[in-house]
């Protein structure tokens, strides 16, 4: 057991301690406690914080111990207690991921502590600090949460086992480090705060700091894996094969990783790398279940064997998907072929492991049972399924399955008005209820397949305030799937304003002048200081147009998508250009750049955080990347940049063949960004967001929709 003590000198006149130790003893033991000195660890970039590690060894299985931290010879806190995993008998394991430092995070952690687990296995995305030392305050709050909340009703502190997630890693972020940096610099807090499988004794047999085994007594074993964040999936395969082979006689073999092999929110194709590397290993090692995360929804898969649904006990259960503190995301209208149950519900999983198998339960922040499944010889009560509640399924309708138009109208001298038609274009029978800002329903009616419901309602003085951005409109839909009369609840959240659309161009757009764009009536997106711009800043704060501004024009025709960017900048920092420059090695975050994000399949729910085209003031592309799902090859003549005395102008041409492998798609999501680098590690990144959208969402999702 490792005790980690984090000390911060954050007050006037405070200083870090000269020494630290832990006193500990078996609970109820007489005599003086043992004492062990701590190993100090500094976190580069966080000078007022020091971490001390205390490894308590030779502990008895199934026993409880008391400990107290001591700083400079004086007690630094109350006595706390923990218990070890029993050698024989049942083991209780809690698991979740994607936590953060929100009020909901604290509520779920407290509820997990009330379930009296032997440990909490967290599958990555801990504090959402993105591996950046500037985000230390998020870690401070997160550490306070887990310290205070993870206590059982018997007063026992719950130990942690932690997998790494993408929000622990700083590569590719402003203020981060290159991909070639050592792992401890790419994930500084994960390495410094949690001394898991680090040290001279670590070898190929014991895994690495981000993938390792934890024994669960005779009840099983837990394999913590790295979803390619610091170590590739493939590089962990030999170690994982050896571990599963050695544990073949254990009744429960569990995996913990961040990115799901069988996701419930993101696209199935986006998880191909993990399935290709691990699924066969899971099968041959007879893995019982995998705790997955990353997608921010509740999920239970059918038993799966090598890509096929099989009977109980014949395949792996995939349980997830994170959402232990973050807002829940959408799930599909119809369950995917591999999913038995999914929902937009914050939750955590509790596993009760024994020599007969396991029972897995999902709970919300109030302790309400959301789902339950068993493996091995453990049987569920006959009415277990009947006692489960209807779950909240926030559904993003694919392809206009449910249409509401227009969302709202408002007269300057009169009340707001909701007017339009609600259409059911699915094969499901529905009942729909339209409400605005949680007021009483304005319309309610059954919606058989192919039917529509007219809407025309006025709001008096008691109605919502409707301004330039509309009102928050939502409607709840119930779907009758026809399977035994079961009904799944869903809710579709509609944007209060229409997304921006791009009109088809009637003039040649490639290298078009500013006057030609303006003559065609195409309005520029202005990067100055509107509310729609979201900025990420390293160094001094962004000063608005005094630092940099831009007018960006977007258009399209049957052949390509076009972007013209006119950038004004007080300090232009370009890459060093010479005949031997390898543009693929130039990081757009280090120089001036215009960024273009493209998603030709927005209905698939992928997250896009990396620009597909980045170009700047050196007359050549810095970076051109195709999404793995794309089939075309990037042409050599996509960008052209001209410097000026006040900045630069960039032209970008993106052929549809590169993006889709064919012609223009029916719908495409776009976003644009601007990087302003003033040198000396002073970088400003600006991304366009409609003001009603969540700036925490992935950079490439959304805002602009292209409809032919």
Which band does the percent of strand residues land in? 25-35%
Low-confidence stretches: 405-413, 466-471, 493-499, 577-583, 691-695
Radius of gyration: 28 Å
The biggest beta sheet reads: 8 strands, mixed
Give the quaternary arrangement of the chains: single chain
Mean pLDDT: 81
Total strands: 44
Principal-axis shape: globular
Helix content: under 10%
Note the gap between the termini. 61 Å
* Overall SS class: mainly beta
Number of H/I helices: 8
Furnish the topology, listing elements before pairings:
Layout: E1 2-8, E2 20-26, E3 34-37, E4 39-42, E5 49-55, E6 64-71, E7 74-75, E8 80-83, E9 91-96, H1 103-114, E10 119-123, H2 136-149, E11 160-163, H3 183-186, H4 188-193, E12 212-215, E13 221-224, H5 237-246, E14 253-256, H6 272-284, E15 289-291, E16 298-301, E17 304-305, E18 308-309, E19 317-320, E20 339-343, E21 348-354, E22 357-363, E23 369-376, E24 402-405, E25 409-410, E26 416-424, E27 429-436, E28 443-447, E29 452-458, E30 473-480, E31 487-494, E32 500-502, H7 514-519, E33 525-527, E34 533-538, E35 548-556, E36 560-569, E37 593-599, E38 613-615, E39 621-624, E40 639-644, E41 647-655, H8 656-660, E42 668-679, E43 682-688, E44 704-706
Parallel strand pairs: 9-10, 10-11, 13-14, 14-15, 15-19, 32-44
Antiparallel strand pairs: 1-5, 2-3, 2-6, 4-5, 6-7, 6-8, 9-21, 12-13, 16-19, 16-20, 17-18, 21-22, 22-23, 24-26, 25-26, 26-29, 27-28, 27-30, 30-31, 33-35, 34-43, 35-36, 36-41, 37-38, 37-42, 38-39, 40-41, 42-43, 42-44
